[in-house]
Amino acid sequence: MPERAVTLDVIAPVSGVVVPLAAVPDPVFARKMMGDGAAIDPTSAEVLAPVAGTVTQLHEAQHALAVATGDGVEVLVHVGLDTVALGGRGFTALVRKGARVERGQPLLRFDPEILAREARSLLVEVVVTSGARVESMEPARGTVKAGETALLRLALKDAAAAAAAAGEPVLSAPVALPNPAGLHARPAAVVAARAKQFVSDVRLVRGPSEVNAKSVVAIMGLSARRGEPVRVKAVGPDAETAAAELAKLLAEGAGEAPGEAPVPTETAPRLAEVRTAGRGEILGAPASPGLATGKVFQHRHGAFDVAERGGSAEEERARLDRAVREAARQIEALKQHAYDRQRAQILDVHLALLEDPGLVSSIDGLLAEGKSAAFACREAFAGHAAKLERLDNPVLRERAADVRDVGRRLLALLAGVEPAELLVPEGAVLVAEELTPSDMSGFDRRRPAAVCTARGGSTSHVAILARGMGIPAICGIDEAALALPDGIEVVVDGSRGVLRVSPEEGFVSQVRERIARQAAQREVDASTALAPGRTRDGHRVEVAANVRNAREAREAVAAGAEGVGLLRSEFLFEGRATAPSEEEQAASYVAVAEVLGKERPLVVRTLDVGGDKPLPYLPLPREENPFLGMRGIRVSLEHPEMFRAQLRAILRAAPVGNLHVMFPMVATLDEVRAAKEMLAEEQEAVTHSVKVGAMIEVPSAVVIAEVLARELDFFSIGTNDLTQYALAMDRNHPKLAGIADAMNPAVLRMIAMTVEGAHEHGKWVGVCGGIASDPVAVPVLVGLGVDELSVDVPAIPAVKAALARWSMEECAGLASELVRLRTTAEIRGVLAARASEEGEFQGRRIPA
């Protein structure tokens, strides 16, 4: 006999007059697209929890949150209409996502004056968004009092009926993981972020093990290796979509291509297996190549004294919430100054760990037992790090350092301790039991001569960062290194994983001579980098930089950049709840223009996002093939108001600098004309001239290059995407990325066709894709007729030096030879032979 229905009262989160949901002036609520409920015209300004449960959603703009009960009911509270555009202004969150709350507990405060002035409506919408157990709903009428009056009275089905309503679990087909290192931190973070977009409960299944797909720590704990079958299991209203999309994401590598994931090597021993070698040598895992000499500088992380007992659970949760928000702010600041994509991705993992469901659950459990926030934080992070260290997968073992790093950051904030900057003496060899990504993020690249750590290996995030900064490093070194006294002389061979202690003077002299030869070559490159880019016989080729902001523009100019060939404007739009205002955009563009001045060109690429790079505030449909869907200029033309606002902001830099506007992903003449028409309309108020160009990234644009050149001032070839589309190979595909090579003869011929079409009408052509930063490719591109190279900032000196070693005649001869070859292997073979003759291979100088 079925159980009788039980009731659940959803109390009013604010005081005021009840308004039927159908009367809300917004079709999303009025048509109950998100669920049924009621609205309140508020007379109070503090939102109370409508039910007891867990905060499952807290929007970045803090205008909306949701609480889920143990009965499978989720209640959304949305304050005002169009309040997301305020970006959090006028709102103060009192809880964090994942927190356990009691009915009537304050959740957030809002400023009625700001909302009345700037929002479309003050109405507070209360909606049951996940209610498989809801049999019926009775809304209140008249006035309600916050925390006391039942706004909605729900009749709930018994658990069996609810389960039937929710549907049977959806289980995907097995997915053989393509990731070289399995589901380590970065792909785990990508999967967890996507899983959080679904209402359904989503799990990853590997054999008998099953984990929460919304938890980075849980996914890493699954210890799934390359080639192992993993299934996606989902239960809930969007289970089928969740299972299908996450299975597809896993099959595609979760945003990771071969070579991007750290791959364990046989030379990376576990800590218990390392040994000392010959006399005076200590062995570890080669982590970052290079030679260095210097004096040992030992670094040890300080410990925090933590009280086990704290105040009330609410007080401790509030303290922890403040620390989490500040930690997120600190990590975001580090991310803004990240020098490369890998460092930014590592910091993304740290941000995900701050709201990881597994860690949040552990902390909440300890808080409920009366533990202090600091004690709960220390125990939860230490416990999860220990679990990772017990795994067989070496990559996942090393991610325990990231968990400890985030935990240490939170503990410092809870203890009120200002994090000390790691200051390494000039030219020292830094030795530590463990270094964290946070430690490395604060490094002055010129300071440490080398790094040696007892924890970790060649796949650790510290090793990845050291390689990115060009610092020789050994990880997993024998603990004997930790006993070395400060100031003792050592030699580090990061390529072999050997630390030589107190070496003979003759050996040190040889090493220093070798290092000096390498440094001298770099200095020669740097000394000539400020001169204009020219071939040996004087042919002019402009060398510009790819940058994101004014800080990077300053670094580029100091390194010898002759302008900015690609300002990636999408960095202003990403990682936020609302679109940047016209004022904010203009300030950023003008700041870059001021760095460059009137002489150096500034090429601003308009917004380049799409189905593969979505924005939370830009409504774009999910697409079967986002690379062939709404991307680049198509998105801008589809959203003309946003596009026009960006164009106006860009044009405000025209009086300050030598402004060029460039449209991304152009495929047709119609797209160019439509974009130019909008630009011309917005340009009527600007008296300064502006050059207009397009990215050449798809084969159709190459074929009609001559036609496009009649209407544009310049082209910039994005070789990364052009290679992808020309070869029909996803450059992030695990099995194809390695052969999606811009040195393919088809791609080289497309570059030549583009140059020919542009030069026919006297227009210049640049290359801003990754190949432009490769010194080996420089003579090829120049020989094909390219007029400008826009490169990553660190590559500027080497690219200019490579340019100066060739005459224009030699470049043309090399390019002519290569385009006649039939395969990429043949082309790479010729380049390798030429580079070997000059002491270079693939852009890296081989020391004699």
Please describe what this structure looks like.
The protein is α/β, with parallel strands linked by helices and 848 residues long. Helices cover 36% and strands 21% of the residues. An eight-stranded antiparallel β-sheet has the order 9-5-6-7-11-3-2-13. Strands 20-27-26-22-23-24-25-21 form an eight-stranded mixed β-sheet. An eight-stranded parallel β-barrel has the order 28-29-30-31-32-33-34-35, surrounded by five helices. Strand 23, helix 13 and strand 24 (450-453) form a beta-alpha-beta unit. Helix 7 runs antiparallel to helix 8 (341-354).
The backbone outline, from C-alpha atoms, is globular
Q: Order the strands across the largest sheet as they lie in space.
A: 9-5-6-7-11-3-2-13
Percent of residues in helices comes to 25-40%
Q: Beta-strand percentage?
A: 15-25%
Mean pLDDT: 81
Given as residue ranges, the uncertain stretches (5+ residues, pLDDT < 50) are: 1-5, 257-278, 839-848
Q: Enumerate how many helices there are, as a single number.
A: 28
- Count of distinct strands: 37
Rounded to an integer in angstroms, the radius of gyration calculated over CA atoms is 29 Å
Topology:
Layout: E1 6-11, E2 16-20, H1 27-30, E3 36-42, E4 46-48, E5 53-58, E6 64-68, E7 74-81, E8 91-93, E9 100-101, E10 106-110, H2 112-118, E11 121-130, E12 134-139, E13 143-144, E14 150-156, H3 159-166, E15 170-171, E16 175-176, H4 185-195, E17 201-206, E18 209-212, H5 216-221, E19 229-235, H6 239-251, E20 281-283, E21 285-288, E22 291-299, H7 313-336, H8 341-354, H9 357-368, H10 373-389, H11 394-398, H12 400-415, E23 429-432, H13 437-441, E24 450-453, H14 461-469, E25 473-475, E26 489-493, E27 498-501, H15 505-528, E28 542-547, H16 550-559, E29 564-568, H17 582-596, E30 601-605, H18 633-638, H19 640-651, E31 658-663, H20 669-683, E32 691-696, H21 699-703, H22 705-709, E33 714-717, H23 719-727, H24 745-759, E34 764-767, H25 778-783, E35 788-791, H26 796-804, H27 808-819, H28 824-837, E36 840-841, E37 844-845
Parallel strand pairs: 22-23, 23-24, 24-25, 28-29, 28-35, 29-30, 30-31, 31-32, 32-33, 33-34, 34-35
Antiparallel strand pairs: 1-14, 2-3, 2-13, 3-11, 4-10, 5-6, 5-9, 6-7, 7-11, 8-10, 12-14, 15-19, 16-19, 17-18, 17-19, 20-27, 21-25, 22-26, 26-27, 36-37
Helix pairs in contact: 4-8, 7-8, 7-12, 8-12, 9-10, 10-12, 15-26, 16-17, 17-19, 19-20
